[in-house]
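Chain and conformation:
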Amino acid sequence: MSASRETASHIADSLKSEMLSGDLAPGQRLGEAALAERFSVSRGPIRDALSRLVEIGIAVSVPNVGTRVREFTQSEARELYELRETLEAEAAGLAARRSNQVEKDALVSLTYVSEDRFGPGGQGTDNDFHLELARMSGNGLLLRLLSEQLYPQLMLLRIHSRNATGRLGKALNEHHGICDAVVSGDPELASILMRRHVQNSWKSFCDRMDYAGAAPKTKQGQLT
């Protein structure tokens, strides 16, 4: 990797971290001149870095305006969760079908460790659980789509409702059900429970954002 590309990669990673932590707010302008001064580089690496953030969907480039941290419309948020439901249900099913005992034991450990990390002062994120399932799916393309595209966008979307409470305990209980299905080698149940989990997450998000009537309907054959 050339020095210029390495610099751009470093800048992109730095800005991405700030965006996903909320230090750079949705809608905030990412001015090339200000960023070039901040990172003590020319505008070339800055443009490259911003292009990378646009490519993964957490920044938008507006003609004659510049690049901004992405803000999601209700329709875009719904589409993101619809895609998440499909991909993660497939990942959970494949994990139940393909994973070995060592991987299953690791998932069980992660499921319980996550509870401790979500406690007072913890730094937990349920992305750890979902990412592990994606790895266990044995499908490299699915893993890349989730880890490099979908999850960064979801993390940015959640900045809108970061102060919401009440969903965490239910989500962790749902993780246990999914984990049990994967460990027992039941791909159909693992897929159904994951779909239900994502739908519950979307409904909770809709409630927090006051998206009237936006929650998806339960599909035929799913648990209710």
About this structure: The radius of gyration is 19 Å. The chain has two domains: 3-69, 74-209. The mean pLDDT is 88.
